Amino acid sequence: MIGSEHGLLTGVIPAVETSIPRMTEEEFVAWCDEDTRAEFVDGEVIVFSPSSTEHVLLCNFLGTLLRVYVDAHQLGVVGGPEWQVRLRPGLRRVPDVLFVSRERLSIIRDTHIEGAPDLVIEVVSPDSEERDWRDKYWDYEQAGVREYWVIEPYTKVVALYRLDEEGKYRRVEPEGGFFVSEAVPGFKLKPDWLWQEPLPSVVEALRESGLVLRRGG
User: Fold this and answer.
1) pLDDT value at residue 113
2) Predicted local confidence at residue 217, as pLDDT
3) Pairing of strands 147-152, 119-123
4) How high is the pLDDT of residue 7?
5) What is the DSSP letter of 136?
6) Cβ-Cβ contacts under 8 Å for 135 (sequence gap 6 or more)
7) Distances from the Cα of 86 to the Cαs of 42, 63, 139, 151, in angstroms?
8) In which domain, by residue range, is 74 found?
9) Cβ atoms 116, 143 nearer than 8 A
10) Which of 71, 130, 127 is nearest to 102 (CA)?
11) Are the C-beta atoms of residues 213 and 66 closer than 8 Å to each other?
12) Element (H, E) at 129
């Protein structure tokens, strides 16, 4: 199912999307309210179907885990699908989880993020395989997102891609059972946490990884 070099999807399931007439980016901004989760790709509007319970719980766990760590160490801001990310004119994506470092908080605007976050996490659903493994991979790489994490729960796959010196994604392997971030210094994720039922508590996960919660730690 997954390609060899970059982990790109080859035999994909077509994404199920709501049909919306093409429009300009200005029209999209005026049309898309806070209750609508949609992306804009060069005139095409992609409206997402309601997420499954598994998807919501996993995104909440990942977002909370990252947010608690980032807040404790005052590293920046963590957000989720409440934010659109304008990667370039004509391209607006809605990541499941994102991180913007403290030094780059100026890219956060009133209603969106202007430019590439430092880190993006996408949790793959059966109807988002092509988008997450292929389309967003290229979009995030070209926009300069330092790290792109792809998590596919039904195949228990976690892929971490990091920009190299040439601005291309290279897949990063886990270290000692943990994926280790450079975009969020010191943050670690153990894939086994993601497949537990129920998911572990955030405090338990942080303690197991040896991450320090107190500021200045």
Assistant:
1) 98
2) 43
3) parallel
4) 45
5) H
6) 41
7) 12, 20, 11, 22
8) 25-209
9) yes
10) 71
11) no
12) helix 129-130
Q: pTM for the whole thing?
A: 0.89
pLDDT at 211: 77
CA distances (Å), origin 197, targets 51, 123, 185, 204: 18, 17, 28, 14
Backbone φ and ψ of 123, nearest 5°? -100, 120
Evaluate the CA torsion angle 21, 53, 155, 80 in order and state its sign.
positive
**Which residues, other chains included, contact 156 with Cβ-Cβ below 8 Å and sequence gap of 6+?**
191, 194, 195
Using CA atoms, how far residue 88 sits from 3, 33, 96, 140, 187, in Å, is 27, 20, 19, 10, 28
User: Which residues of the chain, if any, have pLDDT below 70?
Assistant: 1-19, 212-217
Total domain count, the chain? 1
How many C-beta atoms lie closer than 10 Å to residue 4's C-beta?
7
CATH number of residue 131's parent domain: 3.90.1570.10
In a domain, 3, yes or no: no
Residue 71 lies in a domain: yes
Q: What is the pLDDT of residue 1?
A: 35
pLDDT at 19: 62
Residue that has been written with the tokens 């997450």 in this structure:
132
Q: What are phi and psi of 65, to 5 degrees?
A: -55, -50
Name the one residue in this structure whose structure tokens are 């199920």. 16
Strands (E), the chain: 38-41, 44-47, 76-79, 84-88, 91-93, 97-101, 112-114, 119-123, 147-152, 157-163, 169-172, 179-180, 188-189
69-84 pLDDT, tens per residue? 999 999 999 999 999 9
Pair 140, 111: CB distance under 8 Å = no
Residue 8 in any domain: the answer is no
